[in-house]
Amino acid sequence: MRDYKLLIFDWDGTLVDSIGRIVMAMHQAADQRGMPRRSDEAVKGIIGLAMPEAIRTLYPELTTAEHVERFHASYSDCYLAIDRIPSAFFPGVEQSLASFLEQGYQLAVATGKSRRGLQRILDALGWQDYFDITRCADETASKPDPKMLHEILEHCGVPASQALMVGDASFDLLMAQRAAMDSVAVGYGAQTLTALSAYGPKLSINHFMELSAWLNQTVAEPLTEEIEHVG
Question: Among all residues, which ones are annotated catalytic?
Answer without folding.
Answer: 10, 12
